Amino acid sequence: MNENKQVLRSREWIFEALMKLMKKSAFQDISISDITSKAGVARLTFYRNYSSKEDIIIHEGRKIYEKLMEDLNTTVFEDNIIYNSIRKIISVFNDYAELFKLLLRDSLDYLIMQSFEIEISNILKSIFGVDNTDKYKVKFYEGALFAIAVEWIKNSREESIDEMTDIIYNLIYN
Questions:
Q1: Domain segments of the chain: what residues?
Q2: Could you write out the DSSP letters of every residue in 25-80?
Q3: How many CB atoms lie within 10 A of CB 169?
Q4: Are 75 and 81 in contact, with CB atoms under 8 Å apart?
Q5: Per residue in 50-84, pLDDT tens?
Q6: How far apart are CA 17 and CA 78, in angstroms?
Q7: Whole-angstrom Cα distance, residue 118 to residue 49?
Q8: What pTM was estimated for this model as a whole?
Q9: CATH 1.10.10.60 at 1-51, yes or no
Q10: How far, rounded to the nearest angstrom, does the alpha carbon of residue 150 sit from its chain's CA centroid?
Q11: Which of 74, 88, 111, 167 could be joined to 57 by an S-S link, Cβ 3.0–4.6 Å?
């Protein structure tokens, strides 16, 4: 990401403002004016960066995806690549659990999924050796991983990261 610091700072303030507002109000009840006021930025700044409130979430989803890809790139040198990759996926969901909880509460988890969907094939190819020619297999893994992580968050992350990794690994290979 080669964006200037002011743009990055403005986006961070806008995202943080939205998160604070979502803790108190449903997403659909939050206006762009509420967000800009809470963030301390002008509406013009908002519209330079986003076209809608949903774009804030989609942009954050892309940042989460980028972090995940960075993490996954380090598994190339680890022993059990698949197991460690699954663990890293679950760890990222754990790191962003607060965001996911708010999105789930307001039935907006599809916005994060939309962010991942664009690039999910890269993750699947690197972890499971699935390529885009097998579109049904791609959709299966994509949906399964996302659904399991969402269910885990809905259940207040009762299982540890290691337990969830074991569950997913065993579902795939047993």
A1: 1-51, 53-173
A2: S-GGG--HHHHHHHHT--HHHHHHH-SSHHHHHHHHHHHHHHHHHHHHHGGGGSSS
A3: 16
A4: yes
A5: 999 999 998 888 888 888 888 777 765 667 888 88
A6: 38
A7: 20
A8: 0.82
A9: yes
A10: 11
A11: 111
